Amino acid sequence: MSSVLTGPDLALPDLHTPRAQVLLAVADDNLVTGHRSSHWTGVAPSLEEDLAFSTIAQDGISHADLWYRVLLQGAGFDGDLRAGVDALGLGRDADGYRHAVVCERPPRDFAFTLARHWVHVHVEAARLQALSGSNDAEVAALAIKLAHELRYHREHADHWFARLTGDDGARGRFADALAVVLPESFGLFEPAPGEHEAVADGVFPGGHPGLRPVWLESAAPVLVTAGLGDLVPADDAQAPAEAAGGRAGRHTADFTDDVWPEMTALYRADPGARW
Amino acid sequence: MTTGSTTVDPVAVRRAVEDVPDPELPPVTIGMLGMVHDLAVADDGTVRVELLPTFSGCPATEMIERDVVDAVREVDGVDAVVVRFRFDPPWTPDRIDATGRERLREFGIAPPGGAVPSPRPEGRPALPLLVTPSPAADADPRPCPYCGATDTVRDSDFGPTPCRDLRFCEQCQQPFEAFKTF
């Protein structure tokens, strides 16, 4: 992996282990989607949605924070935990991030945001379910805790799915957004580097590829019921080339020239800063 | 009094920890919220406190950690304080005690566990398409914290903090907040 910018006297553990790479992928999906969700703070279509997406953004970034903690603590890190978490979240070069490309896409319009939110939250629910069965006690405990909290996100996403697919005016725009999001979402099921070892060791039962059939089994009937069966991804569907490779650190300009410089600017100006 | 040789009173430590107020809801203490999992006093005067975070996205967590350290340091004989947050067992709202529930209600926040029938007003559609079955709003009804009426509705899943949602009382026409359950 590329370098990590840290404050003085901070020694991070080895981030190349399969466990670390898997947890970076889990955390980074949430961190980057969280930053994209925060776009709506102050400009959402209604006050309720402003609060909703502000909370969703806050939860995403907080969940990332906790996964970085679990990563560090399980790797024997004994330094300042706050400084270590900040270094992981904000100190990596852009190609050190392991999130799926779909997470870094700009919010575009509210339809696109809700389409990505609907997919992301249900894939996340499946992932937390899988991680709840981890043989790593800290990983399992955090997954169980966060799965409880995801309930409100799921209800919010499902509510909007029902509303937008049931409204003649909104339906076309929402379907167009889903048609972009669904293929790109297959980047979420890419394995992190070395993930097969984390799967074999029991850290991440089933791994990211294993989430795909679980998610599709529940999402496909909903799309069909909503009359959007033609959007159900094929069994052999893959992410379009540009939306693949996120877990290996290949990101688009949406990340390298947009989210990444913005979210890391302060940290890079003053590594190790406390706030 | 000489530190290091003083015996630390575990009861005093527990009281100090449990009396720390929630930074966002000062009438409620972390003891009432059921956040205190375990306390241990070592022979060298080091106190270890294990807390269960409520909502993981709660920005008050770090303030609580600091406040607990400050409170325990005031106890006679305490040499050092180590606070650790743990996720097992996961904190849930049923850990809030009766006093905490009443204080929340007085603060205008409907506490969880208020199982009352709540009619679904006209024009509020059910959610027919759910990927994952989850309890609908009317499965988690709350009486109004102001007038006690039970015909209240949940207007939004997300309130001003990660731990609260938004409700409305059809009786006194008052919007209010409710502590989330999960």
TrEMBL record, chain A:
Residues in coiled coil: none
Classification via InterPro entries: Aromatic_CoA_ox/epox, Ferritin-like, Ferritin-like_SF, PaaA_PaaC, PaaC
SUPFAM superfamilies: Ferritin-like
Residues in the signal sequence: none
GO biological process: phenylacetate catabolic process
One Gene Ontology CC term in the entry: cytosol
Taxonomic superkingdom: Bacteria
Classification via PANTHER family: 1,2-PHENYLACETYL-COA EPOXIDASE, SUBUNIT C (PTHR30458:SF0), PHENYLACETIC ACID DEGRADATION PROTEIN PAA (PTHR30458)
Protein name: Phenylacetic acid degradation protein
Organism of this sequence: Egicoccus halophilus
Automatic annotation (TrEMBL), chain B:
Family annotation (Gene3D superfamilies): Fe-S cluster assembly (FSCA)
Pfam families linked to this entry: FeS_assembly_P, Zn_ribbon_PaaD
Domain MIP18 family-like, first and last residues per copy: 12-81
Taxonomic lineage of the native organism: Bacteria, Bacillati, Actinomycetota, Nitriliruptoria, Egicoccales
Protein name as it appears in the record: Phenylacetate-CoA oxygenase subunit PaaJ
Domain PaaD zinc beta ribbon as annotated: residue spans: 138-180
